[in-house]
Task: inverse folding
C-alpha cells in the first residue's frame, strides 16, 4: 500500500504558516502537541456515545488547535493583546492568581451587570460564568448563542438560559461530553459582567476552595478557542 502524498495546497499552507511565525515555529509545534494530547485524553474519557459527533470533534481538531496556537504565539504583537502569558509546554495561559475568586466580589453588582448585558449582549460574545460547587469556585468561559426579543434573557452555548442580572434560569441538561458527576457537584451558576481580573482568571483556569487557592484547572479546547475571541479593550463583541 502506498502512502498518500500531501497535496500541494496543504504543503504550501504549512510553509506559509512557518514563514509567518518566523523563529516561533518550535513554540507553535509545542503548543499544538500539548493541545492535541490534552484534547485526545479528554475525548477518550468523555461520555460521547454519538459516533458522528465524535467524528466531527476529531475532524475539527487540526483547525482549532492551529488557530489557538497561532493566536498564542502572536498574542503580544497583536492589535488586541491580552494580559496573559503563554505556557508553550502545557498549551495554556497563565497569570498571577488572586487570593480570592474575583467573581465573588461582583455578586452584588446586579444592576450594573443587567445594564451591561442589555447594551452589549450579542450572538457570539464570550462571557464569564461563575461556578460554585462543593469544592469551591472557578470561572468558566462560555458564549452567547441566543438573546430573547426584549433583550432581558440570553442563552449560553453550554450553560443554558440566564437573566441579564446574572441569575441562571434554566441550566442545560446533561450532554454526552459532560460528566454526570461534575454536573451533580454544581450548586450554582452566575453570569458575571466581564472585567480584566475575571476574564484573566477564567482564561488561566484559576480555582479556589472556600479557604485558599487551588491548582489551576486545564481549560478544554472549546474554552481555549473562546479565549482567542475576547475583546480585551472593552469585552464587547470583536468586529469581524
Result:
Amino acid at each position: 500500500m502506498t502512502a498518500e502524498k500531501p497535496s500541494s495546497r496543504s504543503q504550501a499552507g504549512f510553509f506559509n504558516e512557518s514563514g509567518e511565525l518566523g523563529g516561533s515555529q518550535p513554540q507553535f509545534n509545542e503548543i499544538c502537541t500539548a493541545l492535541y494530547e490534552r484534547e485526545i485524553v479528554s475525548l477518550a474519557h468523555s461520555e460521547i456515545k454519538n459516533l458522528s459527533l465524535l467524528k466531527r470533534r476529531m475532524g475539527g481538531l487540526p483547525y482549532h488547535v492551529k488557530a489557538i496556537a497561532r493566536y498564542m504565539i502572536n498574542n503580544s504583537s497583536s492589535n488586541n493583546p491580552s494580559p496573559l502569558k503563554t505556557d508553550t509546554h502545557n498549551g495554556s495561559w497563565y497569570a498571577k492568581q488572586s487570593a480570592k475568586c474575583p467573581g465573588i466580589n461582583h455578586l452584588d453588582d446586579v444592576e450594573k451587570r443587567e445594564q451591561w448585558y442589555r447594551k452589549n449582549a450579542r450572538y457570539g460574545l464570550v462571557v464569564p460564568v461563575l461556578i460554585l460547587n462543593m469544592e469551591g469556585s472557578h470561572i468558566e468561559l462560555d458564549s452567547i448563542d441566543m438573546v430573547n426579543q426584549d433583550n432581558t434573557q440570553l442563552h449560553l452555548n453550554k450553560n443554558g438560559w440566564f437573566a441579564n442580572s446574572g441569575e441562571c434560569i434554566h441550566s442545560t441538561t446533561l450532554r454526552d461530553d459532560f460528566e454526570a458527576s461534575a454536573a451533580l457537584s454544581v450548586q450554582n451558576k452566575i453570569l458575571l459582567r466581564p472585567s480584566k481580573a475575571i476574564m484573566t482568571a477564567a482564561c488561566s483556569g484559576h480555582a479556589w476552595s472556600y479557604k485558599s487557592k487551588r491548582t489551576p484547572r486545564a481549560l478544554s479546547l472549546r474554552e481555549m478557542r473562546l479565549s482567542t475571541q475576547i475583546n480585551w479593550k472593552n469585552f464587547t463583541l470583536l468586529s469581524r
Observations:
- The chain has two domains: 9-89, 93-227.
- Residues 174 and 180 are 7 Å apart (CA to CA).
